[in-house]
Amino acid sequence: MAGMQRDWIGKTSAGLVLGLGLAFALAGLAAWCGEGPGAPNKTQFVMWLVAPIWLGVQSLVYLFRSGARAWIWLGTANLLAFSGLVLCRHLAG
Amino acid sequence: MSRIVSSEVVRIYKGVHTWTGVIAGLALFIAFYAGAITVFEGPLSRWTAEGEPPQSIPIDRAERLIERVLAERPDAQAEFRLHLTGPERDRVYLAWQEGRKAATQWTAILDAEGAPVVAERPTKGAADLVDHVHRTAALPGGLEFGTTVMGLVSALYVIALVSGLIVWLPSAGKDLLALRLGRGVKRKWLDAHNLVGIASLPFHLAIALTAVVFGLHDSIYAGLDRIVYQGQMRPLMQASNPFAVAKPDARPAAMLPPSELIERVRTLEPGLRPLKLQYRRAGTRGASLVVWGEDRRHLVRLMGFTVMSPVSGEILDTQYLPGHQGLWSRIVSVFFALHFGTFGGEPVRWGYFVLGLAGTFLFYSGNLLWIESRRRSLARARDGSGEHIAQRRDTRIMAALTVGVGLGCIGGLSLAIALGKLLHGQVTHPGPWLWLGYYALFLGSVIWALRLGAARAAAPLLLVSAMATLCIPLASLLIAQVPLSQLFVRSGDAVVAVDAVALCAALGLLWMAWLARRRARKGATDSVWSLSEPSPLQPNPTAIHQHRESIHGQ
């Protein structure tokens, strides 16, 4: 693991932007999968998912070797999650 | 573990832990200290007599009470509550409020002739203040702004918890139970910090994550509406909003008597103990009734409830009735219960109280470690400047803030609570006076500590907060106005417990004052805790030194 960079700005911003993005996308997947978003009080449960996912990413983002790697990996994850969300919504709607 | 978490990772996460901790620590100290007290909000408001139920009448007269109050006070028709009191919950009084915010609370019972007796209810000064301080750390700018800031602070707190765990992992198991008291001050504080942090980690994670959601839920919902629900979230939420089940219908209609409505809820769920009946649009076909109650067998929010029609007696919604909730509602209730400690009864409450106070120690010791790792020690840095080495200014400021904010909060809350009892019945709205007391002691302590420095301020401020805390049992004695021997017979257990806890706290603070005085006089001189330290308001002495040198050099 040689050459681990601090890169506070790169990693922190990746967590703030892509961590939050991933959290909303995964919460959205949970909303549209299974019973669908209309199940009683499911909106509340979905809301509760966002903060733990975002802060999980924000806490662990500093494990990436550099800010650039954090942006690439989390960006890919966002792309997949949002594609899944659009697909789920399309299938359900 | 050391193979998974390399030394580089530890180094980076030490940075993350330090800075999230330093920024969030003081606000979290306040939130935790006040939060530990809010666990016992019920006993506390009974102690100040603010929570003492108004006069009540037997439940079989409730129907007449509702009829008469509605006839004479049209302002109660939109919404009023029938509170069930007494050990058997078979006595009632009626309450409603005027206006949504800054509301005046009214209560009503019937006199012997059956005429309503209406009285203004005093506001809950002390309990409300403690709750507000818990949610906002007493930041100015109102409840909404304060809770949003505390939501962000709690986000830093989650990151501090995870990073602290990562930093600790390589030494996991080795150091946990070892309090190396003999091996240097820093080692001792680090071991204590780790022990408390790791032992109460699940509690802290639950509190931190729920606090983020409580503080930021409006923004999260707004984001979800746009990103996930394509602007269609409101109708979805409205569909499962229990308060919107009954549709308004203004045609007049007779309502069933309260005792019968309670009986119907009992038939549905015998485990629910009803505490209050909340009527909306009473006397119309579109009336709705929310029956609030507790059920100790379930993890609930503050209370469970069911919605019914007071006209037909039909149950309309059980999404929030313990044991009858849907899957999602049940899961979310668990999150609430984990934050409030509203499960398992008294043992869990005491557990949350102790863990809350232990939390304040976590933030206090975290700040001490920050200061200690920036300490200039006499042995390491003999630069010929004489006997004394002044500490860095940032550590002097941090030490002063740690002492001033922490003790200011402790003393301020104690004073406000004692004032709450003394002013009850004398003033209808004691709130502003209590806030004046809190802020006077809090800001006074912070300013005092910043002017004199941590070492000089610590012992006197501990003495002040001990005295303020001692005011709590003293207020009881002053108010009692009965022979001392009868005091404990007359007041309930909860009331005596408040006095006993406050007395213990005051003695503990006095003991700490003695320790702080001894440390300031006899402790190491190369420390922010030594009396020889300059005030934090003064710049670094080395800077003056260099300045002099430059003058001499010219």
UniProtKB/TrEMBL annotation, chain A:
Keywords: Membrane, Transmembrane, Transmembrane helix. The chain crosses the membrane at residues 46-64, 71-92. This is Transmembrane protein. The lineage of its organism: Bacteria, Pseudomonadati, Pseudomonadota, Gammaproteobacteria, Chromatiales.
Automatic annotation (TrEMBL), chain B:
Residues 530-554 are annotated as: Disordered. Residues 530-543 have a biased composition (Polar residues). InterPro entries: PepSY-ass_TM. Keywords: Membrane, Transmembrane, Transmembrane helix. It comes from Thiorhodococcus drewsii AZ1. It comes from the Bacteria. The chain crosses the membrane at residues 21-40, 149-171, 192-216, 350-370, 397-420, 432-450, 462-482, 494-516. This is PepSY-associated TM helix domain protein.
